[in-house]
Amino acid sequence: MIYLDNAATTKPDLQALERAGEFLNDNYFNPSALYKEGFALQCALKQSREKLVSYIGDAFSYDLTFTSCGTEADNTAVFGYARRGNAVTSAGEHAAVLSAFSELKNRGVAEPRYAPLKKSGGVDEDKLLAMIDDKTSFVSVMHVNNETGAVNDIAAIAKRVKAKNPRVVFHSDGVQAYGKIPFRLTDDIDLYSVSAHKIGGIKGTGALIRKKSLAFRPYIFGGGQESGRRSGTENVFGIKAFEYAAERKFSFLQADAARVAALRERLFSLLDKRIFIRLSPPDASPYILSVSAQGCRGEILLHMADDRGLLIGTGSACSSNAKARYSRVILACGYNESVADGVLRLSFSPLTTEAEAEESALILNDCARELLCRTK
Q: What pTM does this model have?
């Protein structure tokens, strides 16, 4: 089997799981317990917070609240800080942000505004800025588009946003960026969402990184865990696995990114250009390659490839249950329905080999040619 759907989820890092096993088998106590074992786990969680923040920001300026996933982190940001006036985001955001923005309107909390995308899948910065006024309370722009891999320069965007309205709370969904591309948080970025299972951690663990000067607004209430910021007993095993997986990812971040970028280009070079067109921009995340097979339906190609041992995606896995036939992101980029119908997303990991990339291209070529012959 060849697995090229790493933007949906990655294989758990076995070394990280082994190291974290202590917190599943031996130190399984409740971190909120008053006995010394519980206090020791509180110290372990504090260490995890500081380390996960330190890879992209200053631990003195930012802290981190653990959540169950990236979606919860996004929802915590949206519902915690888009509380008046209007809120601005892009048309290419993950459903965790877009659906939350729709709910803002349903609840009558804030007017949602959606900036258009460029052909690459990145936000049109000038049009986003034009939507911001003195009533804007919240702006959210994803770091890496999860369908095209387009990288938004969120540091530059946040700076422009704050220059126009300093009171705006700026958030970025960094789920496809954290541990994959070099980046440091700047003072203009208030909130940043991350997820463990995108970088070798396990599902069920995410986090919202927050600038300490920004008052926290809880989304989940109850027992007051996470210093009152997110109630619910912490998943210590998942958190420690996240910490250890991130440690390995950031240790080899630049080398992995360069090697994966070369694999991505090798795969694309072998695709039949009479059939496949490239949708991802050249400067996209090295981990994502979005293409369209002209005259083919992407979903059918996905199943044909699956039958031959190649696992790929057609877009966001979190939107696979949606009724819409075409990717809203690809349509928002300005492509027509014919192109959107043939979309495939190939996403890589440091575990991907050159042989797998080459074999994947051959499988896709054969599947597309077979499907075109059937439809003639």
A: 0.95
